[in-house]
UniProtKB/TrEMBL annotation:
Lineage summary: Bacteria, Pseudomonadati, Pseudomonadota, Alphaproteobacteria, Rhodobacterales
Record-annotated Aspartate/ornithine carbamoyltransferase Asp/Orn-binding domain positions: 154-304
Keyword tags: Cytoplasm, Transferase
Signal peptide positions on this chain: none
Organism field: Rhodovulum steppense
GO MF term (any one): ornithine carbamoyltransferase activity
InterPro entries in the cross-refs: Asp/Orn_carbamoyltranf_P-bd, Asp/Orn_carbamoylTrfase, Asp/Orn_carbamoylTrfase_sf, Asp_carbamoyltransf_Asp/Orn-bd, Orn/put_carbamltrans, OTCase_ArgI
Name of the protein described by the UniProt record: Ornithine carbamoyltransferase
Superkingdom, natural source: Bacteria
Class of this enzyme: transferase
Amino acid sequence: MRHFLDLHTTDAGELRAMIDAARAMKTARAGRPRGALDDDQPLSGRMVALIFEKPSTRTRISFDMGVRQMGGQTMVLSGADMQLGHGETIADTARVLSRYVDLIMLRTFEEATLHEMAEHASVPVINGLTNRSHPCQIMADILTYEEHRGPIGGRKVVWSGDGNNVCASFLHAAGQFGFDFTFTGPPTLDPEPGFVAEARAKGVRVEIERDPMRAVAGADLVVTDTWVSMHDPQSARERRHNQLRPYQVTEALMAAAKPDALFMHCLPAHRDEEATSAVMDGPHSVIFDEAENRLHAQKAILRWCLGV
Ligand code: CP
Ligand code: NVA
């Protein structure tokens, strides 16, 4: 059974193969209408459940489109509308769903929910974001970086802002794809020390630098994300904004990185908070390529999970 739960727990060679497959699939259908079917139909006869316990635009639509392009069918479900949201256990939900569908994609709060689903499902489970990680996003980001600038191995990636779930998956990717990673943000919002140690143990350089200008020196890629994630209490909003304001990605910050540095944001963004509109719409930005590449990267993940 191949679950896609996290980058640091998936074999590095398999991750590389998925990126290469995604790129090939993207090239193969270049220029066709979005709804056109791929030449091969590897998901023919397959049903995929897409379950959301949190809002989503990109994850929902890109998974739905990807499955359809490959000849499969989807059902998009809200956790709140299922018995899952009314006391049925995750284990029982997993067993029941496994009798109906061929794969489950889950966006949820606690990581434990995802792992319990995977443990009790007899079909593959994909992590569509938890409070702790967002691996599908970073697969799309690796694909995006490499399309623009070539292999990411040995490059310097700088995360400016909250050491959140998306940051965690970037750290996981650093160890697996072999790039250096610098975090710049306030100490209270550091990435998990265990993830830092694990990436370092894989031989990559991971630094924590409180001064954002110093952090981005020599950066090939600058990344940020929202200051308040979906699982963060709204009561923390003002404090987080005050703490994170010095880490806003501005044109001045981008100018301190390498001249050809890229800027990424997984979206949705709060414009002129974590990054200025000038950066988001500027020459370094590849944010909409990242969004598109969710589709292509996840098609490769789906095929890997199903072995097709
Ligand atoms: N980046 C991302 O996962 O976006 P959605 O929340 O819209 O799915
Ligand atoms: N860190 C954000 C990512 C959204 C795609 C969140 O969890 O809300």
